[in-house]
């Protein structure tokens, strides 16, 4: 009797084991039911997770995006050549991710982290998932360390702190990318790693940016992630997440990172294309319902960590392109509500020669004031009010010919401030230059210098300070503070230079 029972048990166990193998094979391997437009519908992968990486029999990988009752929707990260109905798909058990490590610095990679600069393989130190949960409230620290852009109008009026998300928004061809590239150039020697993510850009544009970064020595601390306009929509969709994963690796080591998403409008368009092909219901402007979450889960990953969690930071500069200056469109309003402020660039200002074309009224930084350099903060206090009054008065007085002395001085001062804030490309200004220029402007020393001569005068004056009064320059640059004594000295020496150089008493030109 015992013998029969044991054989029965063995046979049941054998059948169970053989059955288990069959089940595991069935759940781990699926079959393509439908394929086309970079989207595959697969039957059979029962235990697959959302966002998991799957591999097709041709070696092409895909990311699981839809979980239906009987099938799953997968977006392909490569060509569907050689694939058709009945093709086999296997689970990898891994979430989609990218290789990370310091070997990436100085390189140009695609959205999957593979090098595209022809300089050989990259030795990865780790593998980070592209989708990662943003740090919680406990892990975060308030923004208090400045991130200098080197752009006078931004550092003085809309300062950016490490760990902040500041949106750069404006029509096409208004200098959005230029502000981002200038900010990258200004991080030289600041111990900040820069990551530039190009989404849906022309390959020639990306090549031009890379050559600019190389020319000014910025590639030594930068990574360029490129998903050009010719790439598939899923590749463009994962590019900013891949860039953020690379940034998170450095942040976890306590380093400061600056990441630029250029631009999130094209990212939303790529996601819309992908979602419509996956047959998700369209919402406003045909974007899917979760397009807000698309950008919020990306930008929330940028923060400054508390000391006990490493103290690193990710500062994000997302770029959004508007149509005819319409900031109330769907994607611009979404991203404005997610970020900690915006720099609004205006076509009208750009074409009138004010570059960077920053609109002082619509731009704001909601955090950076707490992180602003003390020296700049001291001299920049009245700048926004002065400019706002000037703009208002300019409109008010354009039809009037006889002006009283106060109004005329306000207009003259405003014209000189506008000229002072103009800045050529790839010439970021250090803290001491910004401090000296504003200190001189506030003291109305520039009032009797013609507007056309302002830039020439400022250039000569800064050289004079560097040569003759290096002690003031060094003190401001090292301490980032401006004492009342130094402020008085700057005003005295500026007047001295004005008299010496022959700028003083030049007859006022017609504005």
Question: What does this 3D model show about the protein?
Answer:
The chain is α/β, with parallel strands linked by helices. The chain contains 16 helices and 16 strands. It has helices spanning 2-28, 152-157, 176-185, 203-215, 233-252, 264-277, 291-299, 330-338, 347-351, 374-380, 383-397, 405-421, 431-442, 454-468, 470-479, 484-501; strands at 29-36, 39-43, 52-56, 61-67, 71-76, 88-95, 97-100, 108-109, 126-129, 167-170, 192-199, 222-227, 256-262, 313-321, 341-345, 364-365. Helix 5 crosses helix 6 and helix 11 (383-397) packs across helix 12 (405-421). It is elongated and about 110 Å long. 43% of the residues are buried. Mean pLDDT is 92; it is low at 22-27 and 506-511.
Question: Could you list the spans in which at least 5 consecutive residues all have pLDDT below 50?
Answer: 22-27, 506-511
Oligomer: single chain
Largest sheet: 8 strands, mixed
- The helical percent reads 40-55%
Q: In brief, what are we looking at here?
A:
The protein has 511 residues and is α/β, with parallel strands linked by helices.
Topology:
Elements: H1 2-28, E1 29-36, E2 39-43, E3 52-56, E4 61-67, E5 71-76, E6 88-95, E7 97-100, E8 108-109, E9 126-129, H2 152-157, E10 167-170, H3 176-185, E11 192-199, H4 203-215, E12 222-227, H5 233-252, E13 256-262, H6 264-277, H7 291-299, E14 313-321, H8 330-338, E15 341-345, H9 347-351, E16 364-365, H10 374-380, H11 383-397, H12 405-421, H13 431-442, H14 454-468, H15 470-479, H16 484-501
Helix pairs in contact: 5-6, 7-8, 10-13, 11-12, 13-15, 14-16
């Amino acid at each position: 009797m015992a013998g029969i029972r044991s054989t029965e048990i063995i046979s049941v166990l054998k059948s169970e084991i053989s059955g288990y193998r069959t089940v595991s094979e069935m759940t781990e391997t699926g079959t393509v039911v439908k394929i086309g437009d970079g989207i595959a519908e697969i039957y059979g992968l029962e235990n697959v997770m959302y966002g998991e990486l799957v591999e097709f029999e041709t070696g092409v990988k895909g990311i699981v995006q839809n979980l239906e009752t009987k099938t799953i929707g997968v977006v392909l990260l490569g060509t569907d050549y050689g694939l058709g109905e009945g093709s086999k798909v296997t689970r990898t058990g891994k979430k989609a991710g990218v290789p990370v490590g310091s070997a990436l610095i100085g390189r140009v990679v695609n959205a999957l982290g593979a090098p595209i600069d022809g300089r050989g393989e990259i030795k990865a130190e780790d593998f980070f998932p592209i989708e990662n949960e943003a740090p919680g409230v406990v892990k975060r620290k308030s923004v208090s360390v400045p991130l200098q852009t080197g752009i006078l109008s931004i550092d003085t009026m809309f300062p950016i702190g490490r760990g902040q998300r500041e949106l750069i928004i404006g029509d096409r061809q208004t200098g959005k990318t230029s502000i981002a590239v200038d900010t990258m150039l200004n991080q030289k020697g600041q111990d900040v790693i820069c990551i530039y993510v190009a989404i849906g850009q022309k390959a020639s544009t990306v090549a031009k940016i890379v050559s600019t970064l190389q020319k000014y020595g910025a590639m030594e601390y930068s990574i360029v992630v490129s998903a050009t306009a010719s790439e598939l929509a899923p590749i463009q969709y994962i590019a900013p997440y891949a860039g953020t994963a690379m940034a998170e690796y450095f942040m976890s080591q306590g380093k400061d990172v600056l990441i630029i998403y250029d631009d999130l409008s094209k990212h939303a368009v790529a996601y819309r294309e992908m979602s419509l092909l996956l047959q998700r219901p369209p919402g406003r402007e045909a974007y899917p319902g979760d397009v807000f979450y698309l950008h919020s889960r990306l930008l929330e990953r940028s923060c400054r960590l508390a000391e006990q969690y490493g103290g690193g930071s990710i500062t994000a500069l997302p770029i959004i392109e508007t149509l005819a200056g319409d900031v109330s469109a769907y994607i611009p309003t979404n991203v404005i509500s997610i970020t900690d402020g915006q720099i609004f660039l205006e076509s009208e200002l750009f074409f009138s020669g004010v570059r960077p074309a920053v609109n002082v009224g619509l731009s704001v930084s909601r955090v950076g004031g707490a992180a602003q350099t003390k020296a700049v903060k001291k001299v920049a206090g009245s700048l926004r009010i002065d400019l706002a009054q000037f703009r208002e008065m300019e409109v008010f007085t354009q039809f009037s010919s006889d002006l009283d002395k106060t109004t005329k001085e306000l207009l003259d001062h405003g014209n000189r401030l506008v000229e002072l804030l103009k800045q050529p490309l790839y010439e970021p200004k250090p803290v001491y230059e910004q401090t000296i220029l504003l200190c001189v402007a506030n003291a109305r020393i520039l009032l009797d210098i013609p507007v056309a001569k302002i830039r020439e005068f400022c250039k000569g004056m800064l050289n004079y300070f560097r040569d003759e009064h290096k002690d003031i320059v060094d003190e401001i640059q090292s301490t980032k503070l401006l004492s009342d004594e130094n402020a008085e000295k700057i005003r005295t020496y500026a007047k001295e230079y004005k008299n010496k150089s022959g700028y003083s008493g030049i007859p006022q030109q017609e504005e």
